Structures are given as C-alpha cells and as structure tokens.
Amino acid sequence: MTAYLFRRLAQSAVLLVLITAIAFGLMRLAPGGPEAVYTLSPTIRAEDIARIRASFGLDQPIPVQYVKWVGGVLRGDWGRSYRDSRPVLEVIGGRIPATLELAGTALVFAVVVGVAIGVLGAIRPHSAFDYLSTIGAMVALSVPTFWFGLMVIYVFAEKLHWIPSGGRETLGAPFSLADRLNHLVAPALVLGLVLVAGWSRYTRAAMLETVNQDYVRTARAKGIAERPVIWGHAFRNAVAPLVTLAGLQIPLLFGGALVTESVFTWPGMGRLFVDSLGYRDYPVMMGVLVATAILVLLGNLLADLLIVFVDPRIRLR
Fold first, then answer.
1. How far is residue 54 CA from its own chain's centroid?
2. Which of 306, 220, 281 is nearest to 79 (CA)?
3. Domain annotation for the chain: domains and CATH numbers
4. Which of 198, 213, 250, 273 could cross-link with 288 by S-S, CB 3.0 to 4.6 Å?
C-alpha cells in the first residue's frame, strides 16, 4: 500500500507539471495580455507598454517565465493578481469553500438519488419505472447545464419567487443557515442533474451483474428478506465500480461548477476563473487551474484507495 501510494503521488506530480506547463504556455500565447487594457488609451506610448511588460515579467521567454512561476509556487508565492494586486493564494482561498460547498452538495444529491434510481431500475428491469428513468437520464445528459440553470431561475426565482436568483447569501443580512440553504438548493440541483444520470445508469448496470449471481439466489433460497438481499448482498458487491465512477466524475463536477457558478453568480472558483478570463488576469487563472488540478488528482487517488476498503478482493500493487 505504501509503495503504491508513493508511486501514485509521483505520477500525480508529473501529471500536474504537464498540466501547468501546457496551461501556462497557452495563456502566454493567447492574443492580448494584461497590457492590452492599457493599449486602449490613445495616449499610451510604445515605451510605456514595454515598461508594463517588464514589470509583469512578460518580456522574458515563456520557458523562463514558467520556471520562475514554478519556483514561486514551491515557495508559496503564487503571484499577485493583475486586477487588484492581491496575492493569488488569498484570492483563491476565499473562493475554495464556496466551490467545495456547492460541489459536495451536488455530489451527495447525485449519489443518493442516482443510486436509488439505478437500484430500482435493476430490480425491476424493463418496467415502466425503468423506461422512464432511462428516458430521464438521456434528457438530463442532453440538456445544457447553462440552459437548465436559466430556466430554473426564470421559473422558480422570477415567476414563483421561491428561491433567490443568485448569490450565496442575502447581502446585508446576518448569517442564517436557512438563508444559505435557500441559495444553495438551486445551483446544487442543477449541477447534480447530469451526475444523477450517470450514477443511475452505472448503478443499474452494476446491479444487473450482481442480482443474478449464485450467492444472491442462494440468499433468497434461504428465505432472507428481499431488502437485505438487495442492499446487503447485491449492492455491496456492486459498490466497487461506483467508487471508481466517483473519481472519474470529479473533473465533470468542477467543469460543471464553472458554468453553474456563472449562471447563479455563486462566488466560487468557477466564477473567479470566468471573471479573471475577462480581465486577462493570468496569475489568478493559473492559480485556479492548479488548485482544481490538485483537487481532482487527490480525489482520484482517494477513490483508488477507497476501493480496497469496499472490496477486499482488490489489492493495490
């Protein structure tokens, strides 16, 4: 286990370097830059642009810029925002809790609802419920997240006034758990919708492989009630692929959070990335990418380690 853990950490480190190198190069090669804002002024001079580029270190070759950036990251200095000169770690640190709150709630919702739908579809295959859940999953996978979010805002916020149209809390109001949940429910449901479709389909497929196994038929022949047979025997052996699915869905979770946070003005890392993109705030954009990549890699590593506990037949080597 220890050797496997160190090997996976080394692989994750190499992958993180590749991700940051590609992202850094693409950002530096993109048209415009932080100095583009100043070029809109008719009084700006070429020497002023050169001075601005030198102050940001943009006049150096891209590999040199990347090496200096990596050195700063290793020292805990992720740079400063071009927008307000705040440290990047401070800017991102204020947004990570909101993203984890939204993503975590959406994942819990997707797991609970998706697993329940998948199990019911597996124990009653080809039933009306099974067909309806399949159609619902296909519709959920086909509907764009931003469109669904806008429809939720239009119907439940603008027309029915059941939920706020955006934000994480009511501005100017004292902290209230009910107010926080009222703001959280809509974006979490929208973000979790596509994940529910995936969890229901994978759970159904995994359960169909186990409900007809000999040990399940033996349990039924012994007179064990149907509920313990399904949840204690069949589902227990179908959990392993679902744990793997959780690791694979983490990138989708953060990718969907970017869209959902923008639609619902949720103050998380996804909204921060979109805002930084408009300002060409490269240090903050790189910081968000690095933080997201680290969370995704750690999530996948945790999923691999959990498989050993849910299925003792698997050994990590």
1. 36
2. 281
3. 2-93 (no CATH), 96-267 (1.10.3720.10)
4. 273
